[in-house]
Specification:
The chain is of the alpha/beta class. It contains seven helices and 14 strands. Strands 4-5-3-9-10-11-8-12 form an eight-stranded mixed β-sheet. Strands 6-2-1-7-14-13 form a six-stranded mixed β-sheet, covered by helices on one side. β10 and β11 form a beta hairpin. The protein binds flavin-adenine dinucleotide (FAD).
Amino acid sequence: MRVVVVGAGVIGLTCAHRLVRAGHRVEVWSRDAFEDTTSAVAGGLWYPYLAKPEDAVTRWSAATYDMLSILSVRPETNVTLRRGRELFREPVPDPWWMAAVPRLRRVRDLPPGYADGYEFAAPVVRLPAYLHWLVDELAAADVPFTHQDVRDLADVPADVVVNATGLGARELVGDRELTGVRGQVVRVADPGLAGWTLDGEHPDGDVYVIPRGTDVVCGGTADAGPDPRPDPDVAAAILRRCVELVPELAGAPVLGHAVGFRPVRPEVRLERVGNVVHCYGHGGAGITLSWGCADDVARLVAG
Ligand SMILES: Cc1cc2nc3c(=O)[nH]c(=O)nc-3n(C[C@H](O)[C@H](O)[C@H](O)COP(=O)(O)OP(=O)(O)OC[C@H]3O[C@@H](n4cnc5c(N)ncnc54)[C@H](O)[C@@H]3O)c2cc1C
């Protein structure tokens, strides 16, 4: 079958990968280069965040956990498996997505100020290098890439079209349930941190520290702002909170700043309508859901 995947973020590229392996003739069309997508900005931690519904997200996350764990044994994929912990100021129940991880246990040596926490090993993906690896895999399978701003999916000549346009679906298919939730991050040099750390309920907003070997992604924010430029005051506040959480970060050289807009929807849209398979609205968890969703997309493409 001839399949055109529209979108070259983590969702489009992963779907294309699965579809090639299933024996389809696949093309990728995209408005932006993969380095300029929201996916390229992501921290890259496997963690179900700002994505629903809970049952499907748990299933997709579990499948992705397995696939990324397999990829983590190959250094060229830029995927590693790292232990880490999420800390809370109050006791919390088990996370709703707990079934997606093989082993999750309570933190016993809680730092001062925290009342609870859980720790587990999670895949961490270095972006945009991981997207680069996916693109190389597709190129090796002779998948053509076309730079194209699609205005109407009905104009795309294919047996099946996969709509993996992320936030672009808002205009492309007029989806008003889709909103962009702004996230700002700071990248610093990795001083050799062993694991990732999240503060699940910091009173001033999200706090996360995701070491990836060459850099550490420090975050973050989640708001409705429209400005694509990093705000220096927000960056300073992010770094302050991250150093409070992980003091070894103090003085780490800043490598860069970035802003992205998470494609948030009340529920991820993954369904087939005619010859179009929609797969977008993965919120703050596109990497976390990518392989699980691609499996479902491949099933829907096959009919
Ligand atoms: C600061 C930040 C940190 C994050 N951290 C994590 C994390 O640690 N873990 C995690 O799992 N997730 C994380 N996320 C979320 C993750 O980045 C997104 O869920 C994911 O990138 C969505 O991927 P996507 O492929 O759907 O969209 P995108 O990456 O935005 O790609 C969409 C693609 O569609 C193309 N497109 C759009 N409209 C059109 C059109 N009309 N015609 C042709 N092409 C079109 C674009 O050019 C692009 O290629 C983070 C997000 C942010 C902002």
